[in-house]
């Protein structure tokens, strides 16, 4: 009877894979996880994917009347509805991607304990589900912008695309960090809920950046405010969707290109940190769950 030997490197120690690169190689598994997440979320639901329209619509109406009508921001900002919704879609995507990625490992504990697969798949699938829900909101935003005379240039469209790429990287990076830590300490979920609660107010979604600059001036508070990646990302969306509408009096943030570059750098560093933390704790997930 003959025996055969396998070449060195055929077997890979669990938890010692290639991280996010394994997600790219196993796109079919990612597709299955995304389908599973969507089915579980809308199981027994009457409206199903229509909730992707209902939730942001209710959120928009509440903010529009509370801030736009009662606080009269619709008089201070031309086409305030487009301005507001351009910021809301950013915060909604960030909140869903970050929040779901934080709960991804714990929520899939049965799979984590039974079989080995790149655990980053769960975090990336949360990002994809958030993207699927982002599309209907983007469609509504585009329709609303078109009704107000939206006529963007290629540069403005590119700014919107750049903003979304930075947003996705930043959301995934934070999701990897808190998703891994959440396995060890469930307090991470509460911390994330607090961060998401202030995210809408920590960036120029309900107000203009000029209101912040008028109060804090060119102080360290302004620097910290701009170093929040969501702030330049929201401004990129305003530049893409609100600035090209009729009557919009767009005033660009001073040195916006610099702040966008710093936001991109912070987002990439966050993703690198997230992958490092995730892989350091990956080997303990099954036993902790």
TrEMBL record:
UniProt GO cellular component terms: plasma membrane
Keyword Cell membrane part of the UniProt annotation: yes
Cellular localisation: Cell inner membrane; Cell membrane
Keyword Transmembrane found: yes
Signal peptide: none
Start and end residues of each ABC transmembrane type-2 domain: 47-281
Transmembrane portions of the chain: 45-65, 80-101, 121-147, 159-184, 191-210, 256-278
Keywords: Cell inner membrane, Cell membrane, Membrane, Transmembrane, Transmembrane helix, Transport
UniProt GO MF annotations: ABC-type transporter activity
Mode of membrane association: Multi-pass membrane protein
One annotated GO biological process: lipopolysaccharide transport
Homology family: Belongs to the ABC-2 integral membrane protein family.
Protein name: Transport permease protein
Native source species: Georgenia ruanii
């Amino acid at each position: 009877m003959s025996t055969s030997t396998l070449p060195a490197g055929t077997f890979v120690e669990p938890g010692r894979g290639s991280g996010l690169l394994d997600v790219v190689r196993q796109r079919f598994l990612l597709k299955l996880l995304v389908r599973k997440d969507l089915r579980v979320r809308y199981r027994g639901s009457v409206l199903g994917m229509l909730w992707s329209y209902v939730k942001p619509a209710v959120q928009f109406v509440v903010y529009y009347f509370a801030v736009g009508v009662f606080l009269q921001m619709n008089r201070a900002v031309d086409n305030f509805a487009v301005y507001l919704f351009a910021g809301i879609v950013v915060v909604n995507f960030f909140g869903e991607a970050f929040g779901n990625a934080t709960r991804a490992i714990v929520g899939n504990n049965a799979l984590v304990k039974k079989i080995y697969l790149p655990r980053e798949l769960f975090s990336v699938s949360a990002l994809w589900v958030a993207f699927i829900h982002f599309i209907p909101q983007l469609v509504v935003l585009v329709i609303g912008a078109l009704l107000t005379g939206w006529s963007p240039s290629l540069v403005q469209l590119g700014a919107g695309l750049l903003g979304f790429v930075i947003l996705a990287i930043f959301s995934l990076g934070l999701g990897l960090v808190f998703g891994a830590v959440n396995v060890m300490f469930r307090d991470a979920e509460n911390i994330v809920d607090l961060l998401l609660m202030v995210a809408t107010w920590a960036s120029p979604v309900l107000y203009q950046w000029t209101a912040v600059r008028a109060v804090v001036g060119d102080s360290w508070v302004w620097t910290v405010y701009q170093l929040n990646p969501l702030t330049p990302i929201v401004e990129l969306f305003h530049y893409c969707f609100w600035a090209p509408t009729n009557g919009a009096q767009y005033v660009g943030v001073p040195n916006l290109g610099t702040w966008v570059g710093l936001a991109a750098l912070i987002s990439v560093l966050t993703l690198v940190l997230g992958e490092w933390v995730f892989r350091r704790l990956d080997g303990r997930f099954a036993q902790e769950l």
